[in-house]
Amino acid sequence: xxxxxxxxxxxxxxxxxxxxxxxxxxxxxxxxxxxxxxxxxxxxxxxxxxxxxxxxxxxxxxxxxxxxxxxxxxxxxxxxxxxxxxxxxxxxxxxxxxxxxxxxxxxxxxxxxxxxxxxxxxxxxxxxxxxxxxxxxxxxxxxxxxxxxxxxxxxxxxxxxxxxxxxxxxxxxxxxxxxxxxxxxxxxxxxxxxxxxxx
Length: 199
Prior knowledge:
Layout: H1 3-26, H2 34-41, H3 45-52, H4 55-79, H5 84-102, H6 104-117, H7 120-146, H8 156-170, H9 173-179, H10 183-194
């Protein structure tokens, strides 16, 4: 990537971040104007049109960027190869952080946007996130079984459903706002439930 391409990518990121900040503040893309985005990003409005074409494309890029960032952050945690419990705690904290940083309104708005626009690209991104999460969790549970932290009697299907139930509960703003300080306790209880029987 040459200097011009690097500057272009940096400028696009700046616009995406500014748009995300406005979404957090206003809760819905319909409440945000291109003028506000340009002002927040400290760029000319024409620059936004040059890079994204229109507001709809920009919002799409913001959501796509969110999906990609979430996938990469989870992969990076797994790549550290820490013991099962530490990895589970870090992945849980990461997920809570994303829910908290994004905010429930934006999350709902993003899902509504994907549905309303019938955007195959974003739907594919959402599916990719779901598949990547499943791969990461399966890898983690297999690691837990090897370490003797997860009982071998639990099937992959059950473990995935069990964890999905917990994570979907955590995505409720009334829960994720309160659970953040208790991630280690939550993980400890989860671990006790998954651990093999001590005979």
